[in-house]
Design a protein that fits this description.
elongated; 13 helices; mainly alpha
């Protein structure tokens, strides 16, 4: 992947489209799941991917979906079934191509989640499905409220706190993303995926030293420098980005991603001898190189 695509990824914010938690109700994520993208940014590894949403149900018109199983007159669906149907409505409503009855499907989904939660206010699938629906339709305030409602009910679910961080990143709420990462790490201090997310969000928040130190806990210095350089370039600081790339090559002269990005930077932003931004990002030991 070339630098242009990397920067497009960064503009989207991570996490640009999804880290879900590793459970079978995950929707298609809101961070890139392209292995090439992940292999460059943050030095490899894969984020949890989503499993298909269980169950199929009526959609109220538009895209045809299997009908619900017959039930006795007056019999209510349980919260599991309501949630499964709601998940299906969301998947169909936001699928490609978008159906003409998208809004109707999303309304049906919301009503089903609500019915599930009236029967069981702590139903995990409904709480999480509702939060994810708000993420996917871009409702920032409702997303925050839905994740808080989930975490109030399940305060030890580190995976969902990480997912909440990724949702904040999607909305470019970097302070909120960092706070959710910190909460997840208090529950699971050795979680490398959360550490990587936290490092990226700290960088996007302009907290360069903290970002670099955090990244170096879970990746080589050269990769951490490369990541910082990518964020600096997105922040329109090409000379500071170049300096980090040069420091990355000092740490690892064979770091392929850095070599490629530096070559592109030299082409798009020729060196300006008068520019000397200084190195504001310190080494792991705390001494500026």
């Amino acid at each position: 992947m070339d630098g242009r695509r990397l920067r497009l990824f960064i503009v989207g914010g991570l996490l640009a489209g999804g880290v879900g938690c590793a459970r079978n109700t995950n929707p298609p994520g809101f961070v890139p799941t392209n292995p090439q993208q992940q292999s460059k940014l943050f030095g490899g590894g894969s984020q949890p991917t989503a499993a298909a949403t269980p169950g199929m149900g009526p959609t109220g018109g538009g895209m045809p979906v299997e009908a619900a199983p017959p039930r006795k007159a007056g019999q209510k669906l349980g919260p599991d079934a309501e949630t499964a149907f709601a998940d299906t409505h969301v998947q169909v409503a936001l699928g490609e191509p978008l159906p003409p009855n998208k809004d109707e499907l999303l309304d049906l989904a919301r009503h089903r989640y609500d019915r599930a939660l009236k029967q069981d206010p702590k139903h995990q699938g409904a709480l999480l499905g509702l939060a994810r629906m708000h993420v996917r339709v871009g409702e920032r305030e409702k997303t925050a409220a839905a994740f808080k409602r989930y975490v109030d009910a399940y305060p030890k679910d580190a995976a969902v706190q990480h997912e909440a961080a990724m949702a904040c990143a999607r909305f470019q709420d970097w302070a909120g993303a960092c706070a959710w990462c910190d909460a997840a790490l208090r529950l699971d201090p050795e979680n490398r995926s959360v550490q990587k997310t936290r490092g990226f969000c700290l960088a996007r928040a302009g907290r360069w030293d903290e970002a670099f130190a955090g990244m170096c806990k879970v990746m080589p210095e050269a990769q951490a420098r490369y990541n910082i350089a990518a964020v600096l370039l997105h922040a329109n600081q090409p000379e500071a980005s170049r300096q980090q790339l040069q420091l990355a090559l000092r740490a690892d002269p064979q770091h392929a991603n850095t070599i490629d990005m530096l070559a592109e930077l030299d082409h798009t932003h020729p060196t300006n001898p008068a520019a000397n931004p200084g190195n504001a990002i310190q080494t792991v030991g705390g001494t500026a190189p």
